[in-house]
Amino acid sequence: MCVLVCSRERVGDAATHLLVELALRGEALAIDGGNRLQAYPLARALRERTNRFDFFCQRVLIRRAFTAYQLLALLESLPLLTSPLVILDPLASFYDETLPVGQARWLVQRCLQEIERLKRAAPVFLLLRTCPLPQRRFLQDMVCRQADTLFYEQEEITSFVQPALF
Amino acid sequence: MARVEKTGWLMDVYTRPSGELVCWLLSEDGQRWLLPMDFPVTFYAAGSLAVLRQAWRFLRGRGVQLSRQVRRDLFHGERVVLSATLDLPGRLPETYRRLAQAFPVLDYYDADLPLSVRFVAGTQVPLLGRCRFETDGQRLLGLQPLESAWEMQPSLPPLRVMEIECDAEPALHPPQEIVIRCDRRCYRFPLQPLRAFVVNLQALLGTYDPDVILTRYGDTWLFPFLSEHAPSFNPNRDEQMKVEFRRERSLFAYGQVLYRGAQALLFGRWHIDRCNAALFAEIGLTGALEMARVTGLGVQEAVRKSPGAGITAMQMQTALRDGVLIPAVKQQAEATRTLVSLIRYDRGGMVYQPLVGVHRHVAELDFASMYPAIMVRYNISPETLYQRDAPAGLIPRTLQPLLVKRLALKHCLHTLDRRDSRVSDLKARQTALKWLLVVCFGYLGYKNARFGRVESHEAVTAISRELLLQAKENAEDMGFTILHMYVDSLFVKREDTRTEADFLPLAEKIQAETGIGVTLEGVYRWLVFLPACRDQRIPVANRYFGVFEDGTLKYRGIALRRHDTCPYVAQTQLDILSCLAQADDPREQWKEAWGLVNQRVRSLQRRQAAIEGLQMAVKLSRDPQAFRRPSAAAQAARQLQAEGVAVRAGMRLFFWFTQQGVSVAPPAAEEVDWDHYARLVLRAAGEILDVLQPVEKKQQYYLPLLK
């Protein structure tokens, strides 16, 4: 399992690049856990790389989960795949303050068990956004501990910006 | 007391700390009753039989009646479930919480429903509905409905209302005086000494015994303040209950950050904080009662929650009546689709960009409650997806009576004279229903909706696009020019059409072809579609202003409609529109309108405008520390924080532009940035007037004013 931790904005771009490369090589399934998949940029990026746009578009399969429970149900419903699996922003819905922390921890554990099952058959890529809530940072750590390969993308340090003079 | 039978209204239900359910009833003789009632409640768990057996053992001996049942899940069909019934409804949340903690792997149903929804579905007596009840003075022994929630002219309980206001905004200045209005009398009490104030308030509550306490800042200041400084004060009618406080929160909904202030809920009477009730300003008490009546949510809940919570409650009632299980969490995920399919189907409503400029004798045709009507007519519901000739789904069955009632109220409004005393109440009621219908579509795709499904959501927009295209073709067949189409409305004109009667055949034809009701919003004497501010060649959807034949103005997408426009600028823009409305063609009044702008700008330059009219309002899109640039909102937030005010995302802040930046306190006249306000007025004027004349003419009006 390969995990990339990056900023919220970068998840979409990273997914676009990864999915284009995968689609050019075969079928790929993208599971969007945080509404991060950018369909139009992905289509444009594919068009830049091939003139058989329709054909390659069919190779990108998508499923969206809008809640933590849906993500778990979705992972549970997946059979062992032969094509790569890309999971975008899987923890987005786990940061929802209406989801109790204990429940979130249990759901992440269950999701990781499912990912463990799936990665035996095909490569799994997780694109995580940096946790915005310090009190739920442990969820990100749980996922990262499970990674076979882990990439951290340094976040740009933002602070008060001096307004332009002109 | 002997057993008596009364008729009256069911006002509310709640549970006491002991867990028993209490009904608040108002009998026709004016007596208020708080009567406990036996009302067992049931929730269910489903999953593997081995785990269910463990759950059974876990619950045994905890005062829960357990049984094995087969019940229907909307998505999974019939399921074997463990049914757990509690005699005391107030004990259910804790029992469920413990069970879910011990067995998170199980699926839970009917476990977190609002008590009032459960009660209404179980007894068929709607909240605020007339009913017959039996009591021995100690308990409620029987309850029968005499009225349905869908009654067009429901009988109204005679409510006693008390209004409480303070003399300052508590977040900025500690209030000194409290004004209490009740039964046409007005009382003013100093807040200090507090003991005297509390004694007076308690005495007034005892004397007038109000059913509704309407406050300003009651949620966020008055009741928390009294609870802290006078803990023995109890404003509830039910003396066994204490005020229930709920914490404040910021949430992301409807594409924006919303702030919900803390809440203070009462028992045996209602407390409504005008400043913390989402729709109250628009629908008032009458609308709030209507919302509670049809949704089954208590009045205090209905006014504070979003209409989405109301629609969910209605769906829950339908499910309970049909014996369908209501999942505690939604688990159905989207089916696998290709990128092409996502791009093709995940779209919104149809927009046909407008033809920029002035148009005369234009008709606006609207599909009446288009999305809900589509959901009903095309049977769109999560369980009917991909099915032909399926029986009516849960969502259409929920929406059907709501749609019928709203259209009937709207029709009734059309038949009444504007000065009729019933108009305001009917308007409030139909607006309350309108909001429920507005959100019902969004809730199909909402992540936390119990019976939502994103594919159903997409189906509705797909059908709406098709219908709008059909309407366009019908109009063009009849020789009309389409000026603009926006989701559920279209603007058309034809050389020979002037009056409403000329456009009615088109409305009828579209209605006949599409099967969805079409209303003629009106015929504009003239209508102006505005271009983009940055480029006059680019049209902008849903940005226009115009005047109907009867002189009524309608405007969308201009400064006047924005919440962050200060009253002075908004009034100027409204006056410009009124000035233009005097002519048959707005271009004829262009110079007069500029004269008006001139006058307003000069008034600012002479510092003659009232400070209150210059107050800006802005909604914080994020927490103050998350701002990266020192925008006006960020500055205002930091000033408030420096004064010790807790500022959170979604809050509405008020401030003035000053020479130093912004000020959250009213500034002195010499501190105000008058030039900034003059520029705002000019920008608002230009937004309307620029499109009416060529560029070179504009210069001669703008430049002198800018000097």
Automatic annotation (TrEMBL), chain B:
Keywords: DNA-binding, DNA-directed DNA polymerase, Nucleotidyltransferase, Transferase. One of its GO terms (molecular function) is nucleotide binding. It comes from the Bacteria. Residues 314-389, 391-660 form the DNA-directed DNA polymerase family B multifunctional domain. GO terms for biological process: DNA-templated DNA replication. SUPFAM superfamilies: DNA/RNA polymerases, Ribonuclease H-like. It catalyses: DNA(n) + a 2'-deoxyribonucleoside 5'-triphosphate = DNA(n+1) + diphosphate. Its EC number is 2.7.7.7. Pfam families: DNA_pol_B. PANTHER family: DNA POLYMERASE CATALYTIC SUBUNIT, DNA POLYMERASE DELTA CATALYTIC SUBUNIT. Belongs to the DNA polymerase type-B family. This is DNA-directed DNA polymerase.
